[in-house]
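Reminder to self: keep the SMILES exactly as supplied, no canonicalising. Ligand is adenosine-5'-triphosphate.
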Amino acid sequence: MPRTARSFRRRPVPAHAQPTPAPDPLERERAHLSASRTALRAMREEVQQLNIKDVTGSWVSAAVLQSQIDARIAELADLSHTPLFFGRLDYLHTTQEGQRYYIGRRHVHDGGGDPMVVDWRAPVSQPFYRASRKDPHDVRLRRRFGYTGGALTAYEDEDLTDPAPEGEHTSKLLQAEIERPRVGPMRDIVATIQPEQDEIVRSSLGGTVCVQGGPGTGKTAVGLHRVAYLLYAHRERLARTGTLVIGPNRSFLHYIEQVLPALGELEVRQATVDDLVAQVEVGGSDPAAAAVIKGDARMAQVLRRALRSHVTLPTEPVMVVRGSRRWRIPAYELEEIVQELLARDIRYGAARDALPQRIAHAVLVRMEATGEAPDDRVQDAVARNPAVKAAVKAIWPPVEPAKLVLRLLSDADFLAAHAEGLLTPEEQHTILWAKPARSVRTVKWSPADAVLIDEATDLVQRTASLGHVVLDEAQDLSPMQYRAVGRRCSTGSATVLGDLAQGTTPWATESWQEALDHLGKSDAVVEELTAGFRVPREVIAYASRLLPHMSPGLAEVRSMRESPGSLEVREVRGDLDAAVVAACVDALQHEGSIGLIAADSRVESLATALTTANLPHLTPGSETTADSRLTLVPASLAKGLEYDYVVLDDPATVVAAEPDERTGLRRLYVALTRAVSGLTVLHVGALPPQLG
Ligand SMILES: Nc1ncnc2c1ncn2[C@@H]1O[C@H](COP(=O)(O)OP(=O)(O)OP(=O)(O)O)[C@@H](O)[C@H]1O
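Structure tokens returned for the bound complex:
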């Protein structure tokens, strides 16, 4: 039978399975949802039934295959509360032959291999996020679906062929998603990614993107969706090279950790910068002045000089004895080899590894000159000769990075010799330890020391580069920390996310270009996100009063949320703790999570007040649930987090807790911008005048 004829032949449908006409469009869509669920179950069962006994040779390959199968089964799980599709595109006839696609979190196909749901990351899904009446991308109709739990309850259509201008219309379903009371960890935003966000999400793997955006503009969300997108578009390459998401602290990582798994991506590592450089145990801290200098990029030069100072130019010849013959390489020739290796600027360890072979090569040249014909094995044997080994040890000794840093911070003369012209004598004095340390193990290393050790380690041996790194809250890193992240994506790319106005470290960057230079990604594109999806208009306007005083030039976020009555600022005359507890009780009348944010020094007293009032509370990083919704958040940990309602304890104390006013105002700005539905500010005495 000709192929075409067979493919068009319809199988007879049994009488009991004859489709009855669906009563309305919503019912039809529900029918498609349930058919898609059935198809997904069939895909999962197919994988579950795979029998690997006959196809695997060894137990190792069987184990590998089984783990791949398990991962695939996990990917194909049907999460009952996560909609399988959230959108539909009906294409115009021009390019896609009038095709209709359902857009969802993962690809689902029927028994014949035809798609029932396409992955949101597939090229065919892109118009769902980008198409407009002005530029319809060949799409006739965009349909968005509304869900309650796992049940499809609504849909909303946009006719992209309508000639009327688009106007300022915001989708009701998007509005509902933005206004949804928050509880629990961060969720994905695949159903409502906005066009300017989508451009960043789908930008190419080759380039680094830096995103500046005010609080709640979706930077974290965009960064996470970008990894998911890149993993889809470059699965094999990134599986080989690896991906990493860097966040400011554990609580934050805990808050975001479920977003990627919900998108089917289980293999992305998440870490803080401190985790990345944890070669020594950190048990100490630095005064701000010392941390600033240790974090300065000039320290990289100091370390480089200090490391290379271990190379001693040879003054003695090397004498290699083989059998009855002796081969002598004079000191001046050894020096040439060493100078050449120094000039090549390869890693200290790589040069050290190369040196014995270079000396052996010089010996072989002499052997050949006398008519011998030595091969590679002879060269290897000469390189391992005790005289060569001894010379290498004397000329290019091994250096342990932590010991190098220990000596620089303990030995004033050693530091002075290598910081000459780089650090002033005062700066050197500032970073020297008052009491010199004896051994690497007994030092109370600070986080900044660990970064120095990481730099020194990289000078000795190149750090492996990942395929892609997402760096969140990037404004807070020191130049040396940028370098530490940069070497982990030196041959890959990065997504750098941050807000200059939320920089609260003494070394916070004031310029993205500078940060990108330290990261080694000077040619990155800097994008800006300006629409705010978290903070209500009234609240962001209040917080933005601080901007001219701490980050002049940065524009106020354009809030997508009206929410009148979302801000209350109240002066307390009397017991502040009691007033705060009462405000928390009020906030708990609403659904959603409640964050009580206070200066770190106030946390203990407020914890006691809450406990006395029988109000159980969580610490940041613990998941809020419907039964446990109140979190007591020290202001220093509030960054990146959000709560439905926020009670903010005495702003002046939050400002005063920081070493300088600008940092204090920035800390306050972060605290004021965590609320989704409402913010209550309680103060005793005056508010910071900048809020006036
Ligand atoms: N397109 C969108 N649709 C729906 N919700 C969104 C969208 N973009 C962002 N959001 C929501 O807005 C909130 C803030 O997002 P996110 O935490 O990514 O912002 P951010 O810019 O990283 O904020 P911050 O500067 O405070 O760290 C989150 O709840 C996120 O899910």
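Points to follow up:
The two ends are 84 Å apart (CA to CA).
The mean pLDDT is 90.
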